[in-house]
UniProtKB/TrEMBL annotation:
<feature type="region of interest" description="Disordered">
    <location>
        <begin position="28"/>
        <end position="104"/>
    </location>
</feature>
<protein>
    <recommendedName>
        <fullName>PknH-like extracellular domain-containing protein</fullName>
    </recommendedName>
</protein>
<keyword id="KW-0732">Signal</keyword>
<feature type="signal peptide">
    <location>
        <begin position="1"/>
        <end position="34"/>
    </location>
</feature>
<feature type="compositionally biased region" description="Low complexity">
    <location>
        <begin position="41"/>
        <end position="69"/>
    </location>
</feature>
Length: 258
């Protein structure tokens, strides 16, 4: 999986990412469509496509399609961020499906956030992969999810509690693949939005590890999830941080989409 012209994920890291980050970096996915609807083989449909616009496909109500179109408009697209490549391809076929299960109940919200969607209460999720052309190896997974506003507020509260309770780490399993998250630490990160939570952790599996920085922001009933890691195969690779320009642009698009 190539993130940009200068960075290729090494074999060990490529094995780690699908197991622990669900292949989100450089790829995208959308929750499975409702029964009776045909999924787009390329992933999320563009906002102006018949599949995403009201009345574009027979047999469905206009309201769900309007909501999907709004969420698609909220997602990052190529050209939104100078110096970055934005991928809207289908989900990495090597990535396991579903929500990871933590070995500690208190840490389940942190395991969920690494899944196909931020947690089971998400109504719909659109994922994007962002590769930096400025910092070699920096990759960001960016997703937007629609919620009932009360559920979105509850998610942020649970994440804050989990970060405080899980400093020593936890293990998680998804689709028979297991890994661990060590040294969960709260991280200062200023961003717009109604409320946010940020932390760092070290993900490990199959004898390799990678530091991850996670930022979750609530804007009304929308949850923005950003995960950054450095996949550069160098001993002195920088600690990853979600670039503020990526977070700011993502939140700007959420607000603009209404």
């Amino acid at each position: 999986m190539r993130l940009n012209a200068r960075v290729t994920v090494g074999a060990a890291t490529a094995a780690l990412l699908p197991a622990l980050l669900l292949g989100a970096v450089g790829c995208s996915s959308k929750d499975a469509p409702a029964a009776g609807k045909t999924p787009d083989p390329k992933g999320s449909a563009p906002a102006d496509s018949p599949a995403a616009s009201p009345g574009g496909a027979p047999g469905g109500s206009a309201a769900p399609k309007a909501a999907a179109s709004k969420l698609e408009r909220s997602a990052l697209e190529q050209g939104d961020l100078p110096g970055y490549q934005v991928s809207a391809q289908g989900k990495n076929p090597n990535a396991p499906d579903g929500q990871p299960q933590a070995d500690r109940k208190a840490c389940q919200p942190l395991a969920d956030i690494m899944g196909d969607k931020p947690d089971p209460a998400a109504r719909e999720t659109v994922n994007r992969g962002v590769g930096s052309q400025k910092q070699v190896g920096l990759a960001v997974s960016a997703s937007v999810s629609s919620y009932a506003e009360s559920d979105a507020k509850a998610l942020v509260a649970r994440l804050k509690d989990a970060v405080a309770a899980c400093g020593t780490g936890f293990s998680a399993t998804v689709d028979k693949q297991s890994g661990s998250y060590r040294d969960v630490r709260p991280a200062e990160y200023k961003t717009a939005g109604d409320e946010s939570v940020s932390w760092t952790t070290t993900a490990a599996a199959q004898g390799v590890s990678a530091q991850v920085h996670v930022v979750v922001v609530r804007q009304g009933a929308t949850i923005v999830r950003l995960m950054a890691l450095n996949v550069a195969a160098t001993a002195d690779r920088q600690k990853p941080q979600v670039p503020h320009e990526v977070a700011d642009k993502q939140l700007e698009k959420v607000r603009s989409a209404g």
